[in-house]
Amino acid sequence: MDAERAQERLEQERDRLAELRARFESEHLTDESEDESLAELSHQPQHQADTGTETFNRERDLSILEQLEAELADVEHALRRLDEGTYGVCEACGQPIGEDRLEAMPEARFCVRDQALAEKEAKTPAGE
Ligand SMILES: [Zn+2]
Predict the structure, then answer these.
(1) pLDDT tens digits for 88-125?
(2) Which pLDDT belongs to residue 40?
(3) 116 C-alpha to center of ligand 1: Å?
(4) Which of 9, 18, 100, 110 could join 115 via S-S bond, C-beta 3.0 to 4.6 A?
């Protein structure tokens, strides 16, 4: 994939993620008033379950937002690497990441092998 095409795809992805995040955040801001009404109702026992669900939803929402921001950071990182001329090279071993992989995932930072290693490491508890 040539740099021009990579840049185009990364910019599209960045715009898509930024829009998702903006929409997500605007939905989140309206939650503030909901929280107040929940607080008012919380002295009523039958609403305790709802409050728990709300907390669960909030945690789930936050992890979605974190995921979005992490993806956005990866895309911006890839765009910077395009500028620097290091795009398409694995950050761990310095080998080319590969056309197929970049085609499927233009923001990839590692080759398939190092990505698998990194994911394995993330799942393995420290000290094992
Ligand atoms: Zn590698």
Answers:
(1) 999 999 999 999 999 999 999 999 999 999 999 888 77
(2) 56
(3) 10
(4) 110
Domain positions in the chain: 1-85, 88-128
Give residue 35's pLDDT.
54
Residues near ion ligand 1 (CB < 5 Å) are 90, 92-93, 111, 114
Q: What is the CA radius of gyration of the chain?
A: 20
72, 21 Cβ separation under 8 angstroms: yes
Residues 75-90 pLDDT 10s: 999 999 999 999 999 9
Q: Average pLDDT of the chain?
A: 85
Question: 102 alpha carbon to ligand 1 midpoint, in Å?
Answer: 13
SS3 105: coil
**Which residues are paired to 96 by β-bridges?**
89
Query: Token pair 């420290």 is at which residue?
Result: 126
